[in-house]
Amino acid sequence: MRLLHTSDWHLGRSFHRVSLLDAQAAFLDHLVATVREREVDAVLVAGDVYDRAVPPLAAVELFDRALHRLAEVGVPTVMISGNHDSARRLGVGAGLIERAGIHLRTDPAGAGSPVVLSDAHGDVALYGLPYLEPSLVREQLGAARAGHEAVLGAAMDRVRADLAARAPGTRSVVLAHAFVAGGEASDSERDITVGGVAAVPAGVFDGVDYVALGHLHGSQALTERVRYSGSPLAYSFSETDHRKTMWLIDLGADGTIEAAERIDCPVPRALGRIRGRLDDLLADPALARHEEAWVEATLTDPVRPAEPMARLTARFPHTLNLVFEPERTEGAPYASYAQRLRDRTDQQIAEDFVAHVRGGAGPDGAERTVLHGAFADVRVDAAEREVNR
């Protein structure tokens, strides 16, 4: 059976205030085309369909069109909710939609109730485990203790119990949305540590043939049978080096992974990270490859240059993020700012702060006068409030 594994669409998300709806629509076009061209037997969507629990209308419309197109292709789709989704909202109408071959699995209670598909070699049971927030599902799943590993383990116990009652040779696939130990994270995933230790061991999924994971945005194989598809688009500059793909998995007659191929997703615009002094960045011919990319620029000038964004965008018109990390000047103190606060007056602390953020260049005479006046005003105001108490 040929499976197309994807996840983390995050419909409605922007990239540093740039709308990605067109890029997300292009990805869904690519998804449907891949299903047709590669003769896919089932599509697996491992959570975070939307970026927010209450998504914008345009994202809902995009999702609605995607469901209709997947139904028209006639290839079953199994989809779970992730930590960004509202499970209840995503699951509305699941019973009716299932008649069209779109199987939404958003209720933890259904962990042991698979979608059963068949091919020439027999049945394949596909179990959808939506994102499991420990504090909300512990009692429902009968987990022995709180924590991600405990609730996911309890859900997998239901999976294994159902699988054991099926005909020998039934193959099994699990969709889950979790942070599995050994996975490499990026800056764009929402933290799920609330409710217990976030990472769960890959061994919690023992006993099934393939595990289609969602949550981490980089495509990666933790084992031959346990894989993250990653997000189809980059959602932070930490993903600059990611290759955005889907997994095309051929599940053999005995449950072995006969083939695992990465299918590249469309790239709306390359990402570039550049670092250095502003004048150097504007003159460096080696950076020409970033002139049409979305750019994050880290400026290391000891003193913040004038109009840095305007000057950067003259060469790199798609600069989206600007970071300042000034180089330390020769002789600048390397102690931490907290250490340098000790035994300092308010004026000295303020001047030291200015030098700290400027990489050692302290305030000039006019700036010292402004700081002195500000502190004097604060002291007068505080004295007046004390008198009027």
UniProtKB/TrEMBL annotation:
It comes from the Bacteria. SbcCD cleaves DNA hairpin structures. These structures can inhibit DNA replication and are intermediates in certain DNA recombination reactions. The complex acts as a 3'->5' double strand exonuclease that can open hairpins. It also has a 5' single-strand endonuclease activity. It comes from Streptomyces solicathayae. Residues 1-218 form the Calcineurin-like phosphoesterase domain. It holds the Pfam family Metallophos. NCBIfam families: sbcd. One of its GO terms (molecular function) is exonuclease activity. The gene is sbcD. Residues 268-356 form the Nuclease SbcCD subunit D C-terminal domain. Gene3D superfamilies: 3.60.21.10. The keyword Nuclease applies. Heterodimer of SbcC and SbcD. Keywords: DNA recombination, DNA replication, Endonuclease, Exonuclease, Hydrolase, Nuclease. Belongs to the SbcD family. This is Nuclease SbcCD subunit D.
